[in-house]
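debug: dumping io for the single-chain case to check the tokenizer round-trip. Nothing else runs in this session.
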Amino acid sequence: MESVLRAWIEREPDLTLSELPERLAIQGVLIKPGALWRQLNKRNLTFKKPLHASERGLAAGTAAMG
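debug: decoded output
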């Protein structure tokens, strides 16, 4: 499925890690996001990842003081 994943990521670079397992499930491949991330990382496949709320604050320079 590497070629399929590469095509999806190339065609839609804003895909998220949570969307890829959903698409793979339609193809009959069941994989958890963490396992998929490890496989993508091994193959140097990168894509946009959404930031968690805490990371958005850090990116914007508005991290909460603790």
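debug: round-trip ok. Residues 54-60, 62-66 have pLDDT under 50 and may be disordered.
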